[in-house]
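Before going further, it is useful to explain how the protein records used in this thesis are read. An example of such a record is reproduced below.

***
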Amino acid sequence: YVNLKSPGRFNIRRIPTVTFTANRGVVGNGTTGWLDPGFNPLTEGNIVYSLDSAHGGVWVRDNVALTAGEMGHGGSANVTRILSRTTGGAIQGIVNAAAGMNPAAADGSGHIVANRSAAAATQLYRNAASIATGTNASVALPTSIRFMQFNGGSFSVKTLEFGHAGASLTSALVTSLYNALDTFRTAVGGA
């Protein structure tokens, strides 16, 4: 659980009951397990995650419809979160807003990126392809970023292979990141 950009800083720790399988990812138990990078955008994010320039992303192995998200924040409002496939058959992406993008999706597996590029401009990608754009205004930064959990009590049981957050990404950067992660997955036999 190492921060690839800055090893030793914001390394992820397991809280408490997630199962790690080499070259496959982490599976939550649906009730208590989540991943904590110790990252608070309010105090740490000035350069890498700000109100009007931010993204979150996950690579989810499973195509399972759930109400629990794969990425979110630890507060009580829906400020930032990703649900790779909801029970309503949509992929949901919210970045620093009260509401977000919810395009219909028969498959929620793969690399999902929710991006905010301006005060009223958001984008949602699946496997580097744009699947939605939005104009929801930015309202607040989350108090933390978490994987396999959001809103302090919704825990995922899906397999999370990668999780990331940072400044806004262009569509070209989303594609480059997808290709790099996919190449790595293939190299270690996880694809």
Observations:
- The chain has two helices and 15 strands.
